[in-house]
Structure formats: structure tokens, C-alpha cells
Automatic annotation (TrEMBL):
Residues 482-513 have a biased composition (Low complexity). GO terms for cellular component: cytoplasm. It comes from Catenulispora acidiphila (strain DSM 44928 / JCM 14897 / NBRC 102108 / NRRL B-24433 / ID139908). Gene3D superfamilies: P-loop containing nucleotide triphosphate hydrolases, Winged helix-like DNA-binding domain superfamily/Winged helix DNA-binding domain. GO terms for biological process: regulation of DNA-templated transcription. This is Transcriptional regulator, LuxR family. Transmembrane segments: none annotated. SMART domains: HTH_LUXR (SM00421). One of its GO terms (molecular function) is ATP binding. Residues 883-948 form the HTH luxR-type domain. Keywords: ATP-binding, Nucleotide-binding. InterPro entries: AAA_16, P-loop_NTPase, Sig_transdc_resp-reg_C-effctor, Sigma_54_int_dom_ATP-bd_1, Tscrpt_reg_LuxR_C, WH-like_DNA-bd_sf. Pfam families: AAA_16, GerE. Residues 470-514 are annotated as: Disordered.
Amino acid sequence: MTTMVGRGEELARLAAFVTAGTGQALVLRGETGVGKSALVNHTAASAEREGQRVVQAAGVEAESELPYAGLHQLLYPVLAELGPSQDGAWRQLDAVFGRTEGGDPPSVMTLGIAVLSLLSRAADDQPLVLVLDDGQWLDDPSADVCGFVGRRLTGSRVKLLVAVRTDIASRFDTAALPELPVAPLTREDAALLLDQRYPQLGKQTRHTVLEQAQGNPLALLELPAHLSAQQDDSIPDDFFAQPGVALPRRLQHLYGGRIAALSDTVRAELLMGALDGVGSRPGDGAAGLRYRMHNVDEAVASKLLEVDPATGDVTFRHPLVRSSVVQTATPNQRRAAHEALAHVHRKNLERRATHLAAATVDPNEDVADILEAAAESATRRGGALTAVTWLTRAAELSVTHSDRSRRLSDAAFIAGHAARLGQARVLVQADADAHASESPAAVLAAGYQALYQDGDVRSTHRRVTAAMEKLRDCGSAGSGSGSESESGSGSGSESESGSESGSESGSESGSGSESEEVLARLVILLLAIAQFTGDSGTWERCLDLVESLEEPVAERARLFSNTWSDVVRHGAGWAAPVARAVADLPDLEPWEVSRLAVASYHLDILSEYRPYLQRVVDRELETGAVASGMVMLHLIMLDQMAVGEWDEAEQIGRHVLELAIGHGHELFAAQSRGYLAQLAAMRGQAARARDLQAEVDAWARPRGLGFLTQLADSAGATAALSAGDYEAAYLYAIGITPPGSFQAYTYQASRTLLDLVEAALHTGRAARARQHALAAREAGLPEISPRLALITYGALAMTAESDKEAAEMFTLAESHPEASRFPFELARIQLAHGIRVRHVEGRAAAREFLVPAAEAFERLGAGGWSERARSEVRATGTPPRASTLNLASLTWQERRIADLAASGLTNKEIGKRMHLSPRTVSSHLYRIFPKLGITTRAALRDALSRTPDVSQV
């Protein structure tokens, strides 16, 4: 094997990489032509000599827009060898590779875990080395998965080597993988390489080549080769005519001369290969998906192509050759090649669409339809940004103005969900049919931007209402599908805005189906606006307008309007319809997933669907519907707050706040601060809660965003209760809704039921507290959602006029099938009931309720309530035991994991129950052991069993 010149340090590092006894990843980074590919191939050969299996692949620019094309190329040989199986890992890959319909769209984490599992299986008999050249051209979703996998190879028999160019940004720049920089050769090493390869080179030319190559090995090897075709021993003047032009561009010029000397037939073959992404290295794992060049011996002889001796496949010698082939072709030649490739890939929707988009010049409705279908496919696999590109091109190729307008509107709609509000506005403005600024598409894009960037609900409401009325009165709202009502971004940032800004379709003169879809999107935007206003007048006008629409637009809108608006008045009976709709989540676009998840949150049934949101959200945050992803994060955070996973909720809240600020979604940022204020209040962090509350209130109140001001008031009430300032808590609570009623269309009215009742009782307003608890029962809150049932029975127990009634209501609360899913509210009810029992039945009887309440508050980290509960436990004559205090240091999630581990479940079984990876479960146990003062899993049962038995205290 030829010795590489000047690469001693790099080769030593790569040798250690190959011989390492455990899995790892390494990224080679350097400029074009610096020798990364040579190092990659050297490493691959070394690994094979060590008895390791090597799979090589290469990123190609032609596929950088195709979601998961790079991952498929890299895994193709491995999957072909393993063969299909029925396990979850294989199903995840089927979903992203488009081999199945309607599968759950996995997140980066879920897909990464699946890839790790399959690679581990493939390496059972022989260590596996994955080698990826030109990683900068890998599509973003594939690069994200490779980064995820690369960070988790320790302990496996799998290695990953990636080479990337320094002059092109890629996902590997932020993948946090170990790197090995590949620098140009020193002057001495460059001279040695040149002398070895071209010992007869003239002195002057040798000096010039060394000066111009600047240590770049590719230039050192290519420049003298080019000179051999010249009449004299000199470099052509045009090579240095533009000294400011980068060296790779000048090398392309040299390749261009060789390409021009080929026959027309061979150049056409090279162009087909270049445009279809034929790899630059042997071992192309996706060769079966790409065009195979034929009869290109002439190009091989010209040293433009190389032949794989094992397979006979021809590949481009260097990416610069491929680029030169494309650049030297005329536009007509490129279009002809794309058209031929579209026929080659006629059974692959997205590849066919890519080539047709480049091959077609004049309007062509068939091609536009194919691009539209490809955009839908990409959207459902997390490629919203790619979908925008394809829809925009489909609009350009549309035959009729109405189809062009509709497709531009769809592109704007998806761009808005991808947090590209500015791009959405540009797309709308590109619509020549949007003859007025108040066209449906313009209203939609402007409304989306005004609402989510600026929190403008007043003028946005007027414009959207006017656009809807105009469409309705034109008689074009007949039978819309209501398909994409957006809930994603506008969807009340998840919590309550469940709606989002739909994209208004084309002009009013568009077709009926087009106008129906536009109207359906406008309806969702209007619902989002009404949600954020929290104003009864706005909601009533909104609902009246919805009822005036024809079916099925109005029918579909009712599900969202009844669950997002006022669950006290309209929410009963909607849990089952929402559950039926949610059953189709895998087949829905991300914004549809978000709006249904918002509905399930309002009905307190979100926990059942949270695992799906967790699988899809990471994917959308990278290349998909970012705004919908932020909504999903908010929803996940709220559910974590409800079930007691407060540490995790804090992390997500901070993350989505950063995302919202970064994307200019000020509305979502304020909403994130509101949720973080609520969490701080529950934890007894009164100062932080007040700071966040004030920030939210100052931004939202002048804008008329009642939803956010209620959120701030709710955090204020909870913080005051935690601190024992019951008068302040009462004032905050009645600012949301008066005692004895639930303010119409006020989201927090029912959710602050316990706050108002507790504050009223502690301030001597027992009659008001009783009035409010009875109003909750009369309003039918227990029939609406499990959480409302729990707090209604708890409020009735707290305000009961007889001890018998108090016991009955408490039993209804505590025995509710879903009571344990809301540990904070349940503990508050136990504490209040225990205090009552202590006064009536004595200290021993009270311990049954006070000890569990104290332990729950301690596990949750609910500061003020924890101190109060422990004080009540001490009042029974039983000070908290040391073991109880140790358990108090566990978070709610850690306690659940500890209990499951103590029962004998494995990490994998625990992870399945709690929707966590086994690795995450192991990390939690690693933190749990020192908190409990133990060192082994076997000691868990004893540590947990030392909790006082309340019946014996």
C-alpha cells in the first residue's frame, strides 16, 4: 500500500480509531482536495485488514434535499444483510424510508435508537465501521440521526468515520462529535509528494505548482497532469487569470477541459450520473437507487471516473469532477438529463419530483401535481422545509391562476408552520392573483405574523373575520374538507390556543374546494385568536360565524371550538370524539396533530397521547413544522407539570422559550414564561414566579391577550397560596372568575377551582368557598374531565357542612381512577382533609391523610405546601422520619422509577411503561442510589419500605 506523505499524526490517530476496542465516532474536517477522501479510504482498508466489516457511503449534493436519502444509503448494505424483521427498530426505518403507509413518524431520538439497535445486531459477529465521505452534503434529517448515533457508540462494536468540508456548513458542525482537522501539507511535504509523482517536472513549473497548490494534495496531483497535455512546460495563463478565485474553482476549470474533449454520448452519461447523485467513492450503498452510467471507458481513461474493482461500478474521481460536469453542460442538456432521470425513477415519488421540477420549463399541471404529492409525503416525514420548496415550484408550473394561487398559499401555510413567517409573506406577495392586500392568502400570512410575532389579536380578528365572511357570502364554503386547519403554531402554543393560523388559500375567485380549504384554515386561525383574547364577546362572534358556515367546515370546527373555548359550557361529551380523531394521528400533518393534542389537553386526556408527541417533536424542530413543534413542547410540559415530572417540565419550558425567542415568536415566548411562572409557583419559588408573572402581564395586558393575563393571575394565586398569603391568593383568584360562577370563555376559571376555594377558606370566606364548590358540581365539571372531577370532589370535601359529606366527597376524589395522575392536586386535597380529620377525629386518624400528603409534596418539591404538611404531621405527634426525608429528595419521576425497579422490573420494562429509553432509566437510577444512601439495586426495596406505615404511626 502506498505510503501517504506528511500525514503521520493523522494516520496515527486513525490507526488508534481502527484498533480501539469500543465503538466511537470521528469527524475529519478540511478544505476541498486536502486529502480527506484518501485518509478515509486508507482507514477503510486498514479496518478491513483488521477483520472489521466496512460500509462506505458518500453524501451527494443532488440528494441534500431528499429527507433520509443519506441514511438510506449508509444503512442499505446493513439492512439488506439483516433482512426485514417485525421489531420496532425496523418499523421506524420503514416509516422514514417510505416503505409503509401511516406509520408513526419517529423523532431523531426514536429513529436514532432504532438505528443503534440495528447496527448493534449487524456487529454481533464482526465489528462494523461506517465510513461517510462528503458528509456536508448529507440531508439534514440523516445528519441529525448520524450525530445522535455517533454520540452513543461507546460500548458497542460499531464505529463511524465522517469526512466534511470546512467551507460548507453542515449539521456535523454542531454534532458534538470528536474531530480530527486535516490541514494542507507543509512546504516540505508538498515538495516530496510532487517529486514522488512527477519526478521529471521542470524547475520553473515545479516552483509555480508548489506556490499555487499551497499544500493542497489534489492541486499538487492535478496541475502537473494537466500540463502533460500542453505544448510547453507551462501552466495556461487562464488558470491564474483570476488569482482571487478559490483553488477548487480553478481546478474545476481544468476538469472542464477534459470533459469538453469527451464525446457527446459520454458527456451525457456523466451528466446523468452527476445529476442523480452517483457517489464519488466506491461502495455506494444506494447504487440500486441511482442511475448507472454505461459505456464511459473514455471518461475513465481521462481520469474523470474510477472503477470499483470489486463491483465494476464507476464513480466520479472527486466531487469537483461531478460539479464540473454539471457546470459545463448547457441548460437544455441539463433539462434533458433530468427528464430522463425522472423516467428512471418513475416509481419513486420524491426522486421523480426532484428531477421533474428541474426538467420542466413551461407550465405543466401533471408535473405540478407530482410535486404537490411529493410535498405532502415530505411533510408527513418531517420535511416541511423541503415541502415549501416543492410547493413553490409546483406553483410556478401551474397552468391556471387558481392552482398557482392555491399552491403558493399551501407553501406559505407550511412555511408559517416551519417558523418562516417572513418567507410565508413573500410567497403570498408572489401570488399575482392576490390582487388586494386583503386577499385570503394575504390575510392569512399577515394574520399569522401579526398574531405570533406581535400578539396582535384586535386587528387580526377584524381582518380574518372579514375574509371569512367574504368567502362565505360568495357561496364558496360549501363542502370544504377542513383538512389542514392549523393548530400547530397558533394552536395556543399548546396550551390553549389550540389553533393556529391557517393559510388562506388563493383568491376568492378560486375553485370551490380551494376556497373550502382556505376557509377551514381561516376558521382555525380565528379560533386561535379568540383563544388568546380570552374574551367572551370575541368568542361568541367567532362561534356565530362558525355556525353560519356550511358543512363539513362547521362540523369539523365544532370539535375545536367546543374544547378550546369553554370546557365548562361546551366540553362535556367531547372526550370520545377527540379520542376517535386522535386514533388517526400517524396519518396527519404535524399541525393537525398539534390541534388535536390541544383539544385533548383541555379535556385532561393528553397523557395517553404524549408518547406520540415526544416521538414526533424532535423531528419537527429540525426540518419540519417548527411552530407546531413548539406547540407540542408546550403540551408535553403541561402534562409533565400535571403528573409531577417537574424537573423535566422546567427543562422543556426553558428550551421552548429559547426556541420562541430565536424564531421571533413573541407570543409563544410570553406563553412559555407564563407556564414557567406556574411551575415556579407550585414549587414555592415565589420571587421567581412573581418576576415571570409581571413580565407576562406587562406584555400581554396592553395587547388584550386575556389568555396570558389569566395565566399570570393563576401563577400569582398559586404563588401566594404557597407562601401562605391567602388574601393575595384570593384577590388573584377572583380576578379570574367570581365565586359561585365560572366566567364564560375564561380558560383558567375551572382550573383555579382549588385555589379560590382554599384561599376563601383561609380568609374566613367559608360561604364563598362553599358557593364555588357547589357551582362546580352544578356545572357538571366531574363529567368533563378526570382532573376537574378530582378537584370538584376535593372542593366539596373541603367545604362540606358535615363530616359525613366531607368523608364521602374525599372518598370520591381519592378513589377516582385517574386521581394518582394529578399528584399535586391530590396531595392538596389530602392535606386539607387531614387537617379537618385531626380537629374532628384526633391525631391518629389524621395521619392516614397527612403523611401521604407530606411525602407527595416532598417528592414533588412543592416548597410551601411541603413545609405546611410536615408541620401538620408533627402536630399529630409523629415527626417525619429520616427515611421519609431521603425519599423527599427524589423527584416524582425518580420515585416512580425506584418503585418499579424495587418491584423487580428491568430497565427496559420500566422504560416501556414510562416511555423512556433504558439508558435514561439507568441514568435516573444512578442519581437515585446516592439520594437513598444505597449502592445496589437490591437495596432499593428495603430503602423504600422504610417509609412509615401510616396505619402503625
